[in-house]
Amino acid sequence: MTRFTPAELEAARDRPVPDVVADGLRVLFCGINPGLMTAATGHHFARPGNRFWPVLHRSGFTPRLLKPSEQGELLSYGLGITNVVARPTARAEELTPEEYREGGRLLALKVARLRPRWLAVVGVTAYRAAFGDRKAQVGPQERTIGDTRVWVLPNPSGLNAHWTAETMAEEFARLRMAAQGP
To answer: What percentage of the chain exceeds 70 in pLDDT?
Structure first.
């Protein structure tokens, strides 16, 4: 893995990270916003301590453990990645409530255009802030965006100590089973 200096990571704050999307995906995973490592590499969930890629594999979404640099392969499995807020930051706490609300509005428009079967927001706090649903819990939501169902997953950040890789994989697998249905 490439090592970046603090100056190189700071310089990445202005670097957009392209979505990995296509029309009609089975699941569109939605992160909170790109971290500086993601912005520096251009690859989603690139920070070494992030558990997204291992959990995606453990839950059965991918037949092997993908590296962030292989994110384009997700499309062949009917999966994609976007973010609630596009602005890269060192920590999600740098985002404002207005950015979350605007991100939720833009995300709903994107989902309506792409029509994935499921939108999977990774992070219940981000989901609550983006969609004004203060009582949302991890799992399937009542909310839909057009015909797209919504599922909230635990945040795979290494900072989320409430969930282990194993318990996260179990929740991701619940979504995988639901996404296989009609």
So the answer is: 96
If one compares 12 and 115, the residue with the highest pLDDT of the two is 115
Please give the C-alpha separations between residue 163 and each of 32, 54, 99, in angstroms, as whole numbers: 17, 14, 26
- The residues with which 139 forms a beta bridge, in sequence order, are 152
Could you give the number of structural domains in the chain?
1
78: left (phi over 0), alpha (psi -120 to 50) or beta: left
d(CA 63, CA 73): 11
Note the pTM of the prediction, 2 decimals.
Answer: 0.94
Note whether residue 140 is domain-resident. yes
Which residues are known to be catalytic?
33, 44
Could you give the angle at the alpha carbon of 72 between the alpha carbons of 66 and 73, nearest 5°? 55
The CATH number that applies at residue 29 is 3.40.470.10
3-state secondary structure of 80: strand
